[in-house]
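The authors assume throughout that readers already know how a fold can be written as discrete tokens. For illustration, here is how one protein appears when written out as sequence plus structure tokens.
>
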Amino acid sequence: MATSAVARETVFALRRQIAKIEGTLPERLQAPAAAPVDAPRNPTADVTPKKITPKNLTIVRRGLAVAPPDAFLRTGAEDLDTALGGGLPKAALSEIHGAATRDAGAVAGFALSLVSLILKQGPRLPVLWIGTAEIFREAGFPYATGLHRLFGIEPEQLLFSEAPRLLDALWTAEEAARMTALAAVILEIRGSPQRLDLTATRRLHARAQSAGRPVFLLRQAGEPEPTAAPVRLVLSAAPSAPRQTIAGPLAGSIGRPAFTVSIGKSRTALPGQFTLEWNPDERSFEERRAGERRQERAANPVPVVSASRRGKDPAPASGAVLAFAAVGSPAAGDQPSPGERAAHRRPRRAG
């Protein structure tokens, strides 16, 4: 009997250690309470039923314990939240992946939408956005006017930290992830650097769990590699639907921002793809159904240049537009200055 008790305690100790490494909640994997002495015997079984309390109740889905509902950030898209088991984990590292550099705007917009949801639910704390000089040169910075109009984020609430090297960006992210004075931490990385490995992401994930704050890892133009993030979402831009009016859709108009979201990795969900629209007025996501997407493509073909509305003749067709002259060299006045030429030829800094 004593040997069985020791083995049971050893098993639950190993389960708690595995849960700590994988990012699940170890307190949900506690050993069940022992049965009371006066517990009634089950006449149809040979074992004594154990006393079930909310503390030791564990629901297992695909081998993992289900966390309480308040541990997740719900996006508002029911199908996506259901597929993720309740939403994105609040106190964890979440990876948002863009396959190409042209998807950087969609990835950044989706991350800002998540920040807007976080600020909508809790205190309006500042958000720290960390990146290397390379990624900020390639993708740029968010526009202050758009932050307020689309996401309800004041420009002074979004702080930026530009690091010269990836090592400095990772150190800044680790230090910021443990701070409870921030609503969220965003780390934007370009490519597939060697330093962004399982060890580095485990440290970020552990600090996010300790502080109870989310850390969003934005991967731009990189390969999907193993990380400690429980969830990986693959983002790309989706065609916007026409604006809705009282008379119906407004032809030729551009509606709300839309994203194509694919679940690339999740410990509780199967792979899936969803098309979400961001509602800047309600500050929430709305899912667009597959039938609605087909109807929009049929009603909105490839856009063409419309005829002039102020004259009797249609607008003339546009000719060839060239960046430089077709024949000959540029004029002398168009040559760059010596200082600009030296900066242009300077090799890009690695790391």
The first strand starts at residue 60 and ends at 61. The chain has nine helices and 15 strands.
